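Suppose a colleague, Dr. K., hands you the sequence of a protein chain of 242 amino acids and asks what its three-dimensional shape might be. Before reaching for any lab equipment, you can write down a predicted structure in token form. Begin with the sequence itself:
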Amino acid sequence: MRIDVLTLFPGMFRDFLGESIIKRAQEKKKVDIRIHNIRNYSADKHRKADDKPFGGGPGMVLTVEPIYNALKSIVGRRTKDERRGTEVILLSPQGEKFEQKAAKKLAKLDRLVIICGHYEGVDERVREHLVDGEMSIGDYVLTCGELPAMVVIDAVARLVPGVLGDKDSTSRESFEDNLLEYPQYTRPASFRGMDVPEILLSGDHTKIEAWRVREAVKRTRQRRPDLLKIKSLKCRQKRHSS
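The predicted structure, expressed as tokens, is then:
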């Protein structure tokens, strides 16, 4: 999978791309991540990529031309109507909330382009003509779109086949089947009076699996009851459709 990022601050990605699973994913050639400086595609002699909004108001707005030029250079097509096989996402507080379901969908793509929003936003023509969708990582405001881009890249890249060593790693974690993950323990079995549940030391994998399911449901009910409502709704819909 190839991921291209359009940003005003490419230096922010240096350490992120050089550590942990993201680094190994690139070394294994499972994911190809390329960072592009939006200013390099500006026709302005000072490489300016923003301007004051028409009609007045505070702050600066990212201009349409350098983003258009970047997509033309990187993807080979300009607008979303001319483009096929590549999804272009704008990171914006106005976007659809980014969740695990969206990460799974994006991980199936061959090519993903992420545009990092900034300042007071972007020229509306970017939304209308150049991107396939908008995403937000939460209902709060950040100073830039680079941090959300890292979140999206991490969530998507780890789902690409071959990135994680254990093929079961992504099937038993939080938000799968609308449940939070069950409690995890490792050695030592007892530490300063804090003990691992005996069932996990029993060697009975059937009982262990049943315990994990119960604990996942219990934790979800305590911390994210909204997920159980979604799970219940999906079960009812499945029964009615069968």
